[in-house]
Amino acid sequence: MDEFKSGFFVGGESCNGRVLIVDDEPDIRKVVRMTLHKAGYEVLEAENGAKAIDTINTGENRLLLDVIICDIRMPKVNGIEAIAYFRHNYPRVPLIVLTGFPDTDMATSLLRQGVVDYLVKPVEGDKLKASVARAMEQRELAHL
Amino acid sequence: MISDLPTSDGARVPSAAPSDTAGHRSDQDGQEGMASVIPTPATRVAIIGAGRGGTALLDLLHQLRTIEMVGITDRNPDAPGLQRARELHVPTYERLADLISNHRVNLVMDLTGDPGMDRILREQTSGETDILSGPASRLLWDLVRHESALQAELLHSEKLAGIGSFAAGIAHDMNNPLQLILGLAENLLDECDIETVHEQARDIVDAVKRTTAICRDLTSYSRRASSQQNSLIAINGKLDEALKIARYAVALQDIDIRKSYQPDIAVKGNPDELLHVFVNLITNAVQAMDHGGTLTLETTEVQGATRVRVSDTGCGISADLIDRIFEPFFTTKPPGKGTGLGLYNIKNVIHHMHGTIEVESHIGRGSTFTITFPREAPTEDRSRPS
């Protein structure tokens, strides 16, 4: 995994990358942040699709956001709409879906749209970190 | 004689009659409309025997607008059908002669099981009055019980079919706390700070409790309706309970929920069936609001009657469909998404509670379903001599 590190610095500490978690449940954002923070990622949070779009369009996030982890069932702008926006406007930022509802048709459709992974809660920390690492690899390749 | 009885209210009676149990009102292209009313002559019926058979028949016939219940009598003043009749404002009589004389009775229905009753009735009635007794009335009693069992089965089947649509909501609400539990438990494996350990252990306990509550709600909702037909039901609490269940079937995130409850109002009926009615109405209302909107739940007492309103600001129901929405197997949902029995069952449950249900709808502005329950019947019996 080390070979895919972005290796930029945040607050004087080395950071593996910047990840945005989009989920309406604060508890989910909390555990994802906890898991990824331990693995050396900086984690930003958004509680719905609209907030996520605001976040990615804010300041340096346009350039420095590495991975987006997105729920599907959310208020305001839901996951499907948000993912469509990200794919259209930020095609180089890899997306991981983290949803509570396993839906094969939706998973197939989203993976065809270029989503890196379709994860169904509950997901073990190692699996989540591996998925983020794969997304980071894709991000690195996009920069080449 | 049996052929004179209507087979169902829906077959003979226009559904939007003013005192019907399912009325419709819609507005499309600025034109408001209501179904036309066709007058039907009523059959004047007297019931002899107020035991279980007489009570069930009274409940059934009371729902039919083509029947005018002249009264009911029983030798036993404590017979359950007499109390039921008082609740329904049907006159009760101590003496048989008082009931079947001077009331222009078209049909006497003998549910006493007394083999001598047929002769007594024929002596006391004119040739113009039909009498249903003996094996014919037993057959009728069997049919009433069968119909009642079928209705209960249909309601339960439709409820179970609807629970299938809860899958997404249940998965969402179960898997989110499970994700929290898993994430925290993994963290605790190498967490050394005792305060953090305690805090996260508490979070795990809370998450387990939330998950358990979901299972409890759904187990309770999916069970067969209890036989408590005449329980006192606190309406506001039942609406809140229904809202909690409905959120498994439909996402409420983009719905503004407004409640206008009159405190401390109650109706008599089957609490499980009424919960099902409210869950269905709320689910339909939210499904009508594809892009969000306002769901309004309102309870009031109006002129002694209890009124419940469920309103949405959704797409509305077109005038050509509104007359059909209470029909069995009628649905506007895609195949596999609706049984077409929801509103039909709602109408039947409200019928059994002696209430009415009406819908008013405006295309593009939304729909309001209004259920009106009659006030509690007075306890005194004016037909009995003091």
Protein model, in words:
The complex is a heterodimer of chains A (144) and B (386). Chain A has a single domain, classed as 3-Layer(aba) Sandwich (Rossmann fold). Chain A contains 6 helices and 7 strands; from the N terminus they run βββαβααβαβαβα. In chain A, a hairpin with a 2-residue loop joins strand 1 and strand 2 (13-15). Chain A has 144 residues and is α/β, with parallel strands linked by helices. In chain B, helix 7 (167-188) packs antiparallel against helix 8 (194-222). Chain B has 3 domains: 41-132, NAD(P)-binding Rossmann-like Domain (Rossmann fold); 166-222, Orthogonal Bundle (Helix Hairpins); 228-373, 2-Layer Sandwich (Heat Shock Protein 90), CATH 3.30.565.10. In chain B, strands 2-1-13-14-12-11-9 form a 7-stranded mixed sheet, with helices on one face. In chain B, strands 5-4-3-6-7 form a 5-stranded parallel sheet, sandwiched between helices. Chain B has a two-stranded antiparallel sheet with strand order 8-10. Residues 1-21, 26-38 and 377-386 of chain B have low confidence and may be disordered. With 386 residues, chain B is α/β, with parallel strands linked by helices. Classes of the chains: A alpha/beta (144), B alpha/beta (386). Chain A binds chain B through residues 24-25, 27-28, 30-32, 34-35, 38, 73-76, 100-103, 120-125, and chain B through 167-168, 171-184, 186-187, 203, 207, 251, 253-254.
List key phrases describing it.
A: 144 residues; alpha/beta; Rossmann fold; 6 helices; 7 strands; 44% helix; disordered N terminus; B: 386 residues; Helix Hairpins; Heat Shock Protein 90; 3 domains; seven-stranded mixed beta sheet; 12 helices; elongated
Provide a brief overview of the structure:
Chain A has 144 residues and is an alpha/beta fold. Chain A has 6 helices and 7 strands.
| Main sheet characteristics of chain A | 5 strands, parallel
Q: Share of helix among residues of chain A?
A: 40-55%
Indicate the CATH topology of chain A. Rossmann fold
The SS-based structural class of chain B is alpha/beta
